[in-house]
Each structure stands twice: as C-alpha cells, then as structure tokens.
Amino acid sequence: MSIQIQKHFEAPELLRCFFCCVKVKNSVLIHGGLKRGRTKEPPLDTLVLCDPVNRKVQPLTQGPALSHHAGCMLTEDIFLLVGGWTGKVRSNKIHAYSIEKRQWIETQEDPRSRAPTGLSGHTVTKINQNLCCILGREGGLKIQRKFGDIFLLHLELVDNVYRYWWEEAPVKTKSRSGHTAVLMPSLKYNNDMFGLFVFGGRDDETVHKCGQWPASEVEYEMENNEDLFDNIGQLCRILQT
How far apart, in whole angstroms, are the C-alpha atoms of residue 29 and residue 48? Predict the structure, then answer.
C-alpha cells in the first residue's frame, strides 16, 4: 500500500472554506462557504459539482448565501441544506435542490413546527427520506445555548413542495460545534438497531450515542468494501512478515 500527497488538479470554484459538501455517485456536490477563513465578506451562494476522477468542476447554479451549514442527500436526486450563517444571522431555514431538474425546490414550514433559533457548525444525519436528525449548538446572533440540542426534521414532498416541521428531542447532549455524527449499525443489537454516534466539537474525548432507530426505519447506503478488506488483508500479511 502506498500513501502519498500530490497535487491532483485545481479550479477557482474550489477556493472556499466552511462549505457544505456531499458525495453524489462518483462526484462531490459543494455549496456555499467563505473565500477565506477570516473575512467580513458575505458567504458564497454558488453550487458546483466536482468530479475528482476526471478533474472537472461544473458550476450548477446560485442559491442561498450560506457558510457553516450542513446537509445531506435526502434521495438520489434531492440535496438538502439546513441552517448556516447568512453573513448576518444564524439561520434555521432549509433548502432543497433537485440534481435531475437542476433547480431549487420550494420549501414550506408547517405551523406545528418548533424550529431552533439558529444553527451553525451543526450536523445533519439522514435517517430516511422523511426524517433527518440535526445535532449541534443552537443560538441566535449573539447568544448560543450552553447545552447541545437534538432536533428531528420531518419532511414530506407534496405537489413538488417540501413541507417540513421541526421537533425538539426530549433529551439534551453536551454543547458542541464542528463535530462529526455517524449513523451506524449497533453490534449490541445484532445490527437490528442503528445508533447515532457523535464525537469531537468540544473539549471531550468521549464518543456519545445520541439516539437509535430500528433498522426498518433507516435508509442506509452500504458501500462496497471489498477493495478495503483486500487492502487490510494485504497490510496484515505484510505486518506478519
């Protein structure tokens, strides 16, 4: 196995930080962010598709100007954005983009919704195409809560409009931002349950489990790991010689 760092390719559209990035088949979808770390300039509003294998970057469209936001692929077609910094306030809005139609889809918040004040540096984890779990520090322009909130975002596509409502989970977690949340099968329950494991984002070495769902309710994309297992096997054989 050979590990090395080399310059692969460059593109001006990739000059950004604090953006939202998701994997789409063999490409990467990138939205928003800032041109540099410390700047008073407003966030970027561009959405680009990066194909690192073929070394191509394709600008798709403009959209909401955001940084420090998060998102996920809700379906194979729908890219979901949640929260973020607008340059003036922390947002609690959601945005949906159809890759197939190459257009933003209208969203509408339900009256029953109990939305967070604002979110930035949070995580968005897809449970299924109608439910996402959002975890992170909630706050407005100047004040942020000292504990971490867990929100459930319910979504429903009706007449090409995404209707959504927020529900605050009955439990709290430690305050954090810039963390990682991973939805994984729980070996304790023979993979019949999926747990949301969270780490980082605060001065803490602990991995926290912040919720679990039955496997029947989870839409989970299993990657083909045959090459990974082959490489691990080769590495083990090398270490044994």
Answer: 6
